[in-house]
Amino acid sequence: MVVTGATEVCDDNSGYDRVAELRAFDDTKAGVKGLVDSGVTKVPRMFIKPPDHKSEDASDTGKIQLSIPIINLEGIDKDPLLHKEIVDKIRCASETCGFFQVVNHGIHVSVLEEMKDGVCRFFEQDIEAKKEFYSRDFSRRFRYNSNFDLYTAPVANWRDTCVSSMAPDPAKPEELPAALRDILPEYSKQVMRLGIFLFKLFSEALGLNPRHLEEMKCAEGLAVLCHYYPACPQPELGT
User: Fold this and answer.
1) Which residues pair with 228 in a beta bridge?
2) How far is CA 220 from the centre of its chain?
3) What sign does the CA torsion over 11, 12, 18, 23 have?
């Protein structure tokens, strides 16, 4: 039996009620960080993959080699030949892998670091300070919870998440937690600028006018989603 605050969460095999465990966990509004802060030494069953959901040969996991394409945007606006080369790389990565990582993208390192620090400040503050933002109401422009699909997924992930709608109808300053109130709007502004630029490159890669996807309103929306992974007491379980 795992205890979180005044809430007991069943963790044995006899009479296990998964729905009751999920509700008890959700009702604490403390997330996975709350479990860790309460001193749990065993991972609750809701986070453990049942045998029929585990890989047939877990040993093969370590043999998988995944190479993510990395595209360097430095100097793209200064050299037409380099510009074309980068567009070609984006086309190739999109066709063969489906995604890629960009570096030298123009978002200041100080902004990235402050955004990460702000997310940590939010999740590591006192539970009572976070509770007002805990919600599964998708109409809220800023909310935090643990596992958006908590009641439908076969197993829960060992993480907490906050998400904010920042475009086209951004969250108001008073709707944001103090830990993110200053940095989130600035970070979002720079990400939107990068997104619009990337859509231009995608358009070129498709042989279209650079503004084609932007004019289709592909770059109008932005939701900033941030995961937080507290230390797991049983990492060998692969939660």
Assistant:
1) 160
2) 20
3) negative
**Structure tokens given for 145:** 């919870």
Rounded-to-integer distance, Cα 212 and Cα 226, Å: 30
| Chain-centroid distance, C-alpha 204 | 29
pLDDT at 14: 64
Mean pLDDT of the 191-208 span: 98
Cα 202 to Cα 26, 208, 216, distances in angstroms: 41, 9, 13
Mean pLDDT of 180-191: 98
pLDDT of residue 94 exceeding 60, the answer is yes
Instruction: Give residue 57's pLDDT.
Output: 47
Across 173-178, average pLDDT: 97
Task: Tell me the two tokens of residue 36.
Answer: 């860790």
Q: How many Å separate Cα 26 from the centre of its chain?
A: 19
Q: What is the CA radius of gyration of the chain?
A: 21
Q: Structure pTM?
A: 0.86
The DSSP symbol for 189 reads H
SS3 102: strand
Q: What distance in Å separates the CA atoms of residue 43 and residue 30, rounded to the nearest whole number?
A: 15
Helix (H) or strand (E) holding 161: strand 160-167
How many CB atoms lie under 10 A from the CB of residue 219? 19
| 63 against 132, higher pLDDT | 132
CB 192 within 8 A of CB 222: yes
Q: Which of 160, 214, 151, 224 is nearest to 190 (CA)?
A: 224
